[in-house]
């Protein structure tokens, strides 16, 4: 996308019928660190990569609780994401107050999308620079939606957004058909494996990712570092174990396993993974 | 020309009594379960006790429609607090919130007579008592509602420091043990039920401690 004379205002159409400012906003989403969402019939898992500005700082919060039954993972301008999360929380609380029942996820994403659309049709505003993966459970089951800065939203079985998300999406595309019937544990494992794909060679440690779960009888909550590390340990082992655990013939998997193993041996085993530079 | 007056009232009194007693590491909150209107009984099985937070329980008598609305507002505000602070509200914080919420409607009040019970930041029992527009005080024990005039003098007799002239009742905490406090509550309600027509049917007792909340139900006279 090159600089052109139709991209100054969000209210200016290009001759080919595009709103460049909106498209530029979508670019901002691609710059953010990866966020991944998957769902089964009864659970939704949201995971993200913890990217910190420097070793000295803590990482930014990218997954927010909206209500006991809804969570959201963001990628892009995290400040915009924070503001939208506050809006979503307020919508959930107001709905609960009026109807004394949890806000259906589909309704929430429509409100969000309409809010985003407003910013694409006002000359004094700019589109939100954040993509949202909204995961939730309501009477019609478990849902995962993706909300764009454009004001569009789509429902997914599994999706990834942010930088290097294509690697995660490739992994998810191979496996998504089995997610519907996945157990909670398998779903979490797949989420963490998808996160690993976005790291592309970097050793997967529990301090590098944040994982959240919600489901039937399980309100939204974050998994603690220990639990995540245990799941990582089931596949970040010696290559022979790796092939057995993963249980599938994807060549991408095997390559990643081989890449992980030498790094693993260098690190001296899973025990050392707990000592991260900044435990938060 | 005399002023025209409304031929209806937005308020009704559903009766009932609420009591709370604070202990050194517990708090007892109790209320009867009778809901009335005029001289009739609407139901014998209505709870006037509502848990707002892990360490704060509200019990209110008066106009139950207003009580319900008040509970909903406080619950929603508590959710907002949890999102902002990543923790539950403490009892003293909830006490202030309740006071502000009540005063917010100073010129069309919630017809609710509240007693807030719970554990403070140090794990000690605390009770806050209110009027309809938010004036509140931290106390060691309190009673509100139709039976309060029968119960409060007896609680004063049992729990207040013996001589206010020599030893002013400084500490708001009662030196009773938990079973003694529960027993006292059962006694006062049994007595109030005898003479207050709006109190009776069942007694619901909630005991709040650091490790959780226990609920007990006791039968009261149904006449």
Please explain how this structure is put together:
Chain A: Residues 242-280 are annotated as: Disordered. Chain A: Belongs to the peptidase T1A family. Chain A: Residues 6-28 form the Proteasome alpha-type subunits domain. The complex is a heterodimer of chains A (280) and B (223). Chain A is an alpha+beta fold and 280 residues long. Chain A has eight helices and ten strands. A five-stranded antiparallel β-sheet of chain B has the order 10-1-2-11-12, covered by helices on one side. A five-stranded antiparallel β-sheet of chain B has the order 5-6-7-8-9, with helices on one face. In chain B, strands 3-4 form a two-stranded antiparallel ribbon. Helices cover 30% and strands 32% of the residues of chain B. The relative contact order of chain B is 0.21.
**Count of structural domains of chain B:** 1
Order of helices and strands of chain B: EEEEEEHHEEEEHHEE
CATH superfamily of chain B: Aminohydrolase, N-terminal nucleophile (Ntn) domain
**Low-confidence runs of chain A:** 238-280
CATH architecture of chain B: 4-Layer Sandwich
Radius of gyration of chain B: 17 Å
The assigned structural class of chain B equals alpha+beta
**Gyration radius from CA atoms of chain A, angstroms:** 20 Å
Helical fraction of chain A equals 25-40%
Q: Strand order within the widest sheet of chain A?
A: 8-1-2-9-10
Beta-strand residue percentage of chain A:
15-25%
| Mean model confidence by pLDDT of chain B | 94
So what's the oligomer here? heterodimer
InterPro entries (chain B): Ntn_hydrolases_N (IPR029055), Proteasome_bsu_CS (IPR016050), Proteasome_sua/b (IPR001353), Proteasome_suB-type (IPR023333)
Protein name (chain B): Proteasome subunit beta
Subcellular location (chain B): Cytoplasm; Nucleus
GO cellular component, one term (chain B): cytoplasm
